[in-house]
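Translate sequence into structure tokens.
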Amino acid sequence: MMEHWRSLIILSLFGPLLKMWGSMAVPDSRPNVLLIMADDLGIGDLGCFGNVTLRTPNIDRLCKEGVKLTQHISAEAMCSPSRAAFLTGRYPVRTGMVSRNVIRARSVFNSLGVNGGLPRNETTFAATLKQHGYSTALIGKWHQGLNCKYRSDHCHHPSHYGFDYFYGVPHTLASSCLPDPTRETELAIASKLWFCMELIIIAVITLTVGKLTHLVSVPWLFIICIILFGFLVAFSWFYSFQNSIFWNCILMRQHEITEQPMKAERAGLIMMKEAVSFIERNKDRPFLLFYSLLHVHVPLPTTNKFIGSSKHSFYGDFVEEMDFLVGKVLDAIDENGLRNNTIVYFASDHGGHLEVFRGRVHVGGYNGIYKGGKAMAGWEGGIRVPGIVRWPGMLSAGKVIGEPTSLMDVYPTLASVVGATLPQDRVIDGRDLMPLLKGEVQKSEHEFLYHYCGPFLHAVRWQPRNSDAVWKVHYVTPVFQPKGAIGCFDILFCPCVGENVTHHDPPLLFELSSDPSESKPLSPDNEPFYDVVIKTVEKAVKKHQKTLTPVPEQLTLYNEDHVWLRPCCGVFPFCLCDKEVGNFTM
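Result follows.
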């Protein structure tokens, strides 16, 4: 009994102290993760990667404070396959995010009416970090599909791939997303047409009920004519705008459409504010934010503040606006005291687009000294992208790494940082970058990197373990038009197969450390290691191909536009809404 009272006395004296001690917040050692991906940005567009005419002070500062990756490689030179590889750490040929069809698109087609997308059995870095207690969000461009069987099943929605929160564009920017001068008129007409349809529906219901109850004497033919007129109005509207901004250019918050059509000029600013809001909401817990920019994809819907701000017309203005948005998100990290415990990564999904023009003005990116660009899987200009990683206190500021690295490395690197195990039932092609970033090792784990165009292997790079040489073997290259150009200017995207590609036998060989612009093909006559390199790479290709498992090609089989899959925030086909509120000025 005495022992019982003694325990009560001790608890009464020290209980409050123990409770206070136990409730004290213990800092979470898990770092936050901010992944920033630009769209179609060329490696030569940033100041810290050599541009002297465009102003990108915020990204340049990030570069100065972090590690710069000068041989950072995209797994493909097109949006959807590249981003699939980034999310999963796997070549897109493994996930089926490829197309072998010459006619169909090599990304998720220019419509939200397709049922292809990233397979649901793929695991992303978001899913892995979510399992380890992270709050996860994707803000911006998705472009990995949306629906499968009907317009609101959202089978490929980011929520199925580990993202707790999604706000942004389920598709991508397209040329139709830039409003033309008649847009206000179109919206006004649409509203009036919907009002007319409502009147027609009410009239038909009223006349039908009146006819059946003998309250009115109207011929059935008259009622049928009104119904047919209503259908004519609906379908004339539908067919007039079925490929316009009304179907493909939309904003979503989670599963709800908030804008249809999207007001493209303000979309970037809204998404930046959403990113800042997410950081503020989650500053007290570890988070992963994938900030997937719409910039700098055409049609370059720039806000008034940045129009005319650069020395490079429409494209330069959009690049400088992108830098402004990135700066605001980085400021949010600093202002919330998260700087020293946040890994920030910046890259582009692939190289700049050479074939896009507005009138006679080129509105695509600049790929520096590197040959080729977007859609040219083998050439450096399409796959070498700016790469920056900042983690204060863990990574040396201002460090430059010239070793081969890949967008696919992000997943295994993050898994390593949080102590997660990578999926063991599939091949992960990315490698943990952290030892290289920290300087614990000096060589990349990527001895070979394979450069695909859809499912077709176009080129391979090889950096021997005991050498600083970087060999590049080209088996297939696009035919540039006109002859002597560096792009396929008679078509928007260079093809992967067919009469507009050249198969090289023997293969083309370049040594990138001495010839980064791939201007001097080597031969047995001028390169003593030619035969050794070609045979070594061929052997590696055969070994690599044995690891490939046949999977359904999403962009071959499921990349056709279907009316019933197109998202709609109203009564189809009158899909019009604007649920965004507030002042979206700079």
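Note: Confidence is low (pLDDT under 50) at residues 17-26.
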